[in-house]
Structure of Dipeptidase:
Amino acid sequence: MTVRVLSLLVSLALTAPLSAQAIEFSAQELARAATLQKKLLTLDSHLDTPANFHREGFDIAQRHDHNALSQVDLPRMQEGALDGGFFAIYTDQGDRSPAAHRHDRDAGLLRLMEIREMLAAHPDTFALALTPADAARIKREGKRVVYISMENASPLVDDPSLLSFYHAAGLRLLSTVHFANNEFADSATDAKGAEWKGLSPAGKALVDEAVRLGIVIDQSHASDAVFDDLIQRMPVPFVLSHSSAKAIYNHPRNLDDARLKQLAKAGGVIQVNAYGGYLIDTGKSDARKQAEEALMKKIGAGYDDLSMAQGVALKQGLADLDQQLPLRKATLDDFFAHFEHILGVVGPEHVGIGLDWDGGGGLADLQDVSALPKFTAWLLRKGYSEKQIADIWGGNLLRVMQQAQRHAAP
């Protein structure tokens, strides 16, 4: 079982019911927040929802709650006042053999095709966005906004020139690496440690080409040394699409305060995530890991091959495991500890929201996108202005995109 799948299972388990008291909002607070959020342009910078587009039984226009595989669909986006965001082309890291590189190349292109097919199948409810201005226009038309991103650039290893094709097809946000090192960059979480001490020569060339095309670079999942290379190399700001604060939980996927300040000085933005394993120490035991592996074998399919019906069984199985081998649950309180710290370090002009939905994100008291007004309620409670909240919910991210596209313009 891959690291990605095991991490997803941990995070899915973290959405079990709370046993401890958590942050609460009154009905009046939530109603005020929902009203404001519907007015604002609300974007999430990291949606792994395209991983579901090929699954048997999945239809983005239908509600799929009570399912371990799905946190985002149109009904819940409407309920949670989520206008859209960046839909990720994710490719699991292979063994870096020539055959794996070809597989990754094809997997990326297939995922891109699936996103475009979803758009073609739902022209009245979803629309592709290519520029920052497109998002507000699409919202005015009553549709949901779909930007395309790539998480892990491994589909480009076999042929880096494919980046221009992806850009023409809609790619606007690119990360170099994921859980393990690849030919472009070092990962924050590769057990073998650094291979390139940052970006590789091929990674530097890829970043330069992305800048030339106006594609925003995403540092999430890359090592601190990659961050340092990007700060030194890039003529435009970059973002972290789903990361949190190392000062609150010292995980290699999180960013320390010194680098947060460097990011802000360079004009960049960190989109704070809700992936439980990056917010807290969940206390996962070897017995729990083995039980999760046994559960997947019992269900009888690899994670990527599960049907939506099997997703229901997976949710129930994880709930049963949680009674037998409990984990600590990440909550909104844990998220807000990171969120408030980062806001204090860099200010609301450099913070956004990227919750890693359908890729392991979600909290015990925030299980899908239908509950997003809780974030707006918290920001209102803390005294942030409507303009600041609008920036956090998408304005800051689109400002970085605007800078990247202006720099690339002839």
User: Anything to note?
Assistant: The mean pLDDT is 94.
